[in-house]
Specification:
Blueprint (H helix, E strand, L loop, with lengths): L12 H7 L1 E4 L4 E11 L3 E8 L8 E5 L4 E13 L2 E5 L1
Antiparallel strand pairs: 1-6, 2-5, 2-6, 3-4, 3-5
Length: 88
């Protein structure tokens, strides 16, 4: 496994994936602790709460099918599309 596949220093992706995931295909807010968002189809993240993030608010973020974003997300709301949110 190469370093680019690690969510956090010392984290093993097999351990992270074994925690589970949430399939999101609606426009409701989904809460929890997610370390990776993976787009199964083209999607738009309407809003997300990201811990320890700086910069602009995380809103209206377009994703192409196959895109992935890493971080510590505590809430994710889609405007459209389908994603998998991996728990941490």
């Amino acid at each position: 496994m190469d370093q680019a596949t690690l969510l956090f220093v010392g984290a093993d992706m097999e351990d992270i994936y074994s925690i589970g995931f949430e399939y999101i295909s609606d426009t409701s807010a989904h809460t929890g602790r997610f370390g990776k968002l993976y787009a199964l189809a083209d999607a738009v993240i309407a809003s997300a709460v990201v811990q320890n993030a700086t910069g602009n608010t995380f809103t209206s973020v377009p994703l192409n099918a196959g895109d992935e974003i890493y971080g510590v997300f505590t809430s994710v709301t889609l405007a459209s599309g389908k994603i998998v949110a991996y728990r941490i």
